[in-house]
Amino acid sequence: MFKLPSLPVGKGSKRKMSDLPSADVLKRFKPDPESVDSSSQSGARAARVEDDDEDRGHLGISEEPVDDFEDDDEDGRFFGGGLNEEQSNILDIFDKAGDVEGEASGLTLPAVRRLVGQFERIVAKNAEQRGKYPDDPTKFIDSEADLDAMLKQFLPLTQNPALYYPELISSGVLNLFANLLSHENTDIAIDVVEVLQELTDEDIGEEEDELDEDDVDGAAATRLALAQIVDELLNHSIFELLASNLLRLNEAEEADRQGVFHILGMFENLLTFMPPLADQLVSSTKVLPWLLGRISKSPFDSNKQYASEILSILLQRRANVVKALDLNFVEALLMVLAQYRKTEPKDGEEQEFMENIVDCLCSLVSTSKGRELFFEAEGVELLLLILKKKQLSSLRALKVLDYALQSEAGSNSCERFVEMLGLKTLFSLFMGKADKKKRQASPNFEDDERILRIVATLFSNLPSDSSPRLRLVAKFVEANYEKVDRLLELRELAQTKLRIVERQIASSRAEISRLGAEIDDEQNQEWYLMRLDSGLFALQTADVILGWVCMEDDGIKAHVDSLMARKSLSMDDVVKVLKERASYLDVDEEDIDSDVLQQQLVLDGLINFLGGSP
User: Which helix or strand (DSSP H or E) is residue 342 part of?
Assistant: First the structure.
């Protein structure tokens, strides 16, 4: 009732495709036959450009054959090394990658400039050949192969962003990259995306971030170089170009499926580096409808999961939530979530997908319009079906309900919740009767706290003397007040958690006083937030419920007084907790419709009833 759950935070870890690349994908990186034996294949011509010896320079890859195994055993027992052709090709790929990495350690700016010059000539040559012979691929296939190989030679530049990135910008290479994102050959566009994804990865220069204080300038320079790259890409409409490629790639093809994954990774890089860019991505492209369509497709795969993650990041921005609501995202996401009525996620990746969908829904129903659409889409009914399964997905359904029932806009859903017999399911979880194995996902009191919040919200939103409200109060009377006993038990658990952090805060206070320093409002606010996260919020919510049930029923109040007296407690302790909560509310008295003002009025009423003055 009094605290909205934290909205999901975007994940910043670097992503990888879960599936191993197929043989078709590996063939894209297979060395040219000429690099093994140029004399034996006179009919095939390796891709080359003018000034090859000069331009390949420092980053060129040797075309001389390398024998992995020597046939020096006279009995021939180890002839061939024991590897088949496909295994040898895979090892060749890793060997070539190792060679490039070794060369990158000594890369110089002149070498980078030669690389840029060669790249420009290859791009120009390919464009010229495609222009002259648009209907004859044999005329430009070699220059396209050169272009494919050349793009990969930009990857080592991530070793020193502060040195190399300014050169990429000043040379105009990023402009060429942007143009190639619209290349007729989607394989080339995908290559560019892979390069850009590496150039903008949040882990570049990671070693520099761990340097001593004397070298901290290196980390700052890396950050600045990355910012310059991102800014230049934005100037070249990177979001629009990436989104247009999403529309033309066919995920039935393995290479295109990988390409979609890299595009999503590029989105994640940019949004992680600068979260406000989420607004620009949504406003300048049609990525929202594409993401919704992608997460709605079956079967489940890595791209479906990744799309859900990007969507959850985008919907953390209020402007994007408004657009998503206009596109009827609430009903669509509920339909996606509906698949978990009968089945649970099959693995960790699908579980993460389900949690992303839940996070998206929470972002949407945190608004008044979202709550109204949730009610109209029969979201309460769906989530109750999931809750009744008492599985992992049930705990996620609780999270959505926590958001959807909040504030006045959630009043209709609160009444519907009671009408659909939701109290029975909710209080089964409240009493801890769910399968203990399924509740192992809640080791930090989070789900118990969420249940308390839902109960408090029901008390706030259900009309006085209405049938749904009377049924709610009756739950605390039945079975000899067992729900009241459980409520006091949860209150005690919250206090136990809170005492731990309060001892830490007391120690910090003493240390600050010993040093003769002052404790300012900012520090007090920080400590208060620490206490909220460590049991205080659960304690406050439990006491709000205690206040409500005592106000509603004299028998409940007498039972509570008796149990608290056994612990040397009284209603004064409850009042103290509620007063502290009220003191931290930022109330705008001129806004009579404010949820915060309504909370203040509720707290004042409870405090007055329990015997204290607000």
Answer: none
Surface-to-core class of residue 120, CB atoms within 10 Å of its CB (0-12 exposed, 13-18 middle, 19+ buried):
middle
Nearest CA-CA partner of 613 in 565, 560, 576? 576
| Measured CA distances, 158 to 162, 197, 201, 226 (Å) | 9, 11, 9, 10
Judge whether 556 and 549 are in contact, CB under 8 Å.
yes
Comparing CA positions, the residue from 251, 19, 52, 67 lying closest to residue 149 is 52
Judge whether residue 96 has pLDDT over 70: no
Question: What predicted TM-score, i.e. pTM, was given to this entire model?
Answer: 0.80
Cα–Cα dist 291/131, whole Å: 35
Is 28 a residue whose pLDDT tops 60? no
CA distance 116 to 107: 13
Helix and strand counts by DSSP (H, E) for the chain: 31, 0
* Per-residue pLDDT, 215: 55
Share in percent of the chain as helix, strand, coil (round to 5): 70, 0, 30
Contact 281, 287 (CB under 8 A): yes
Q: Are 573 and 564 in contact (CB under 8 A)?
A: yes
User: Alpha-carbon distance 340 to 284, whole Å?
Assistant: 33
User: Which domains, and CATH codes, for the chain?
Assistant: 297-462 (1.25.10.10), 485-609 (no CATH)
pLDDT at site 85: 63
User: pLDDT band at 236, cuts 50/70/90?
Assistant: very high
Find all residues with CB under 8 Å of 48, minimum gap 6, and list them: 142, 146
Averaged pLDDT score across all residues of the chain: 84
